Prior knowledge:
Oligomer: single chain
CATH superfamily of the domain at 129-239: Macroglobulin (MG2) domain
Structural class: alpha+beta
CATH class of the domain at 129-239: Mainly Beta
Number of strands: 7
Mean pLDDT: 76
Distance between the termini: 156 Å
CATH topology of the domain at 129-239: Immunoglobulin-like
Shape: elongated
Radius of gyration: 33 Å
Amino acid sequence: MSRLLMFLLLVGLMATTTLASASSGQDQPDFQGPPPDPASLYAENCASCHGERGEGRVGPAFVLLDDHSDDEIYHTIAEGRPERGMPAWEARLTPEEISALVGYLRTLAAQAQPPAEEEPAPAHAAGADLRLVLTLQEDQVVAHASLRDEQGQPMAGEKVAFALRTTLGGKLNLGTFVTDEEGVATLRYPAGEVPSLTLEASYPPEAGDPIRAVASIDLPAGQEIPPVATGLFSPNPPPIAILLLGLVVGGVWITYVWVAFQLLRILRVR
């Protein structure tokens, strides 16, 4: 009788444990979120540089994406390419989101086309298209001039001239730079203590009527940035230069007035 009682107690204990485990599994919350939406991730983080359809802007187009493996694309997104202005995204996106982006980029690569609303490139230099984008990095304004041919392919090894548009209406030549294999020429210019900067890129620099691209950037108010060497045609000419220019121009006009007055006196005497 005691053995039968112990057997029944053991069976009841096992049944209670099984029911508790099943109940605990049913009540456990599901912490897994919805799968990442690669289209939204691309629109929020990538389209501003690579275009809404992967046609390329400051960043390259995706027409040559088939030359790279999924692993290469994943590490490029995760680790970035600082030398080309592309930040690393591994701190902002999860591995699942980056993997979803890799597959979405493959889809865009097959249909990358320029936006239909864009105006055609000027019929100059074999239909080249020049675009300029400015970004602020610490105490420098970084200018990326993207040069592409009429098929939308990067134009490597081409010279692009940069100039600063001054507040006096002139231009200050900042030099000529050669585009890299992705068709991008990069200029780094000290921001200075000015509220904004306007830069111009032109191609080809030796042409009488080159293709021009102009971009402006507003600098944060109150930002302490080391001053740069300035001259008369700089965005912030020194007061002494303005004073000297005023004295010279004023002296010339005073001389003209004095000469005219003396001529009138001579004519009246006669």
